[in-house]
Amino acid sequence: MDLLRDRAAIVTGGAQGIGLATVETFLREGARIVIADRDADACRSAADSLDAGDRVVTVTCDVTVAADVQGAVDRCVSTFGRLDVMVNNAGITRDATMRTMTEEQFEQVIAVHLKGCWNGTRLAAAVMRGQRSGAIVNLSSISGKVGFVGQTNYSAAKAGIVGLTKAAAKEMAHHGVRVNAIAPGLIRSPMTEAMPEHIWDAKLAEIPMQRAGEAAEVASVAVFLASDLASYVTGTVTEVTGGRYM
């Protein structure tokens, strides 16, 4: 299939997990990609593993720093001539109960997820509005819908991404730019597999489909939202959860 043929995309946090799965899926659909990730070595390893030639370039990018995100946008435009899709995926966790969570842990998670998403959305939108076209896909989480113990920082950030997405969608619709969010549930990734086994098992028991999701299953939704199949879709939050917390 060629749902994204010749479109230029940036994927933040694109060197592993859901981000890398999104890069792989976008490439199969014909896109050209900028992998923007804070880990330069992981970026290079990801690009080498993809063996996509000049269809993939890498940029070292801390999404909390606007100049870094602007650098990724500039690299995409200078290399591919345009920016059609922005996937704001970069994220971290610093889980702790409110009693034990430090201000630094709270601020780190808010900065990476919420400020990082805002940086990516606004800087990509500035290019897309000039083109009169584009799609922005923001990664929220089911944690932003229901809230999880030990994640006041993460749940707050992911809920904030929902509000940011809806507000940006309203601002950008008349410029031809669509903005949507994905809220994954329990997805198998290096981050989630680091959970203690008893926590993983408890989460698994809440899922009607009785399994964890795979990163590629989130990436396929990102392809839909980025493509013309979703040409009349904006301001939405698509849950990819196996039915958890319906």
Automatic annotation (TrEMBL):
User: Which intervals hold domain Ketoreductase?
Assistant: 7-190
Q: Which gene encodes it?
A: fabG
Similarity remark: Belongs to the short-chain dehydrogenases/reductases (SDR) family.
Q: What is this protein called?
A: 3-oxoacyl-ACP reductase FabG
Species of provenance: Actinacidiphila acidipaludis
Q: SUPFAM superfamilies, alphabetically?
A: NAD(P)-binding Rossmann-fold domains
| Family matches, as InterPro entries | KR_dom, NAD(P)-bd_dom_sf, Sc_DH/Rdtase_CS, SDR_fam
- Entry keywords, A to Z: Oxidoreductase
* Keyword hit for S-adenosyl-L-methionine: no
One GO MF term, please? 3-oxoacyl-[acyl-carrier-protein] reductase (NADPH) activity
Tell me which Pfam families the record gives: adh_short_C2 (PF13561)
The EC number(s) given in the record are 1.1.1.100
